[in-house]
Amino acid sequence: MKKRMVVVSVLGLMLCATAMLSYAQGPEPVGKSHGWGGPGGGPGMGMMLHELNLTDAQKTQVKTIMQKNHTFMKETMQQLEQYHAAMLAVSGANYDANKIGALIQLQIPLQAKMMANHELVVNQIYTQVLTAEQQAKAEQLRTDQINRINQHLQKMANGTDTPPPPAE
């Protein structure tokens, strides 16, 4: 059970690291973003903003907010990348559960900081950039996303959400 928890944690951290790597390269132009999940990854912030049909002035405001956020988060992302490299050094053939556990504990507060900052940026865009009509549309998109998540959770609970077969 403990080994399974470590493996799941490592996979989650790798997923976060992948998102951070793409994010660390700077904000994408608002109209061209595919959201946090990439193409087809669901309505992330970029996808949601695209759905809201922002004006050029609003896109400039969002870009400014994102650039400020990028500068603020650069140090955190660099620390997480260092931990990710250290994690790779003690995984695979060099597997060391104790070192992996220690690295996970170091990453947790940094990931929490990134998540909190992401929500702050979303709030800044919502309150400082969007019109009342766009806010209503954003709330509808958020509700749709919550419903999709709940449906997926229900399928998982019922055992009807089976993983795809392995590629051959």
Q: Could you give the count of β-strands?
A: 0
| H/E series | HHHHH
Number of helical stretches of at least 4 residues = 5
Give the CA-CA distance, first to last residue. Answer: 29 Å
Report on the structure:
This protein has one domain (2-34, 43-158). 73% of the residues lie in helices and 0% in strands. The protein contains five helices and no strands. By secondary structure, the protein is mainly alpha-helical. Mean pLDDT is 78; it is low at 4-43. Helix 1 (2-24) crosses helix 4 and helix 3 runs antiparallel to helix 4.
How do you describe this structure in short?
The chain is an all-alpha fold.
Features:
single chain, 168 residues, mainly alpha, 5 helices
What's the SSE blueprint?
Elements (H helix, E strand, L loop, with lengths): L1 H23 L20 H7 L4 H34 L7 H32 L3 H27 L10
Helix pairs in contact: 1-3, 1-4, 3-4
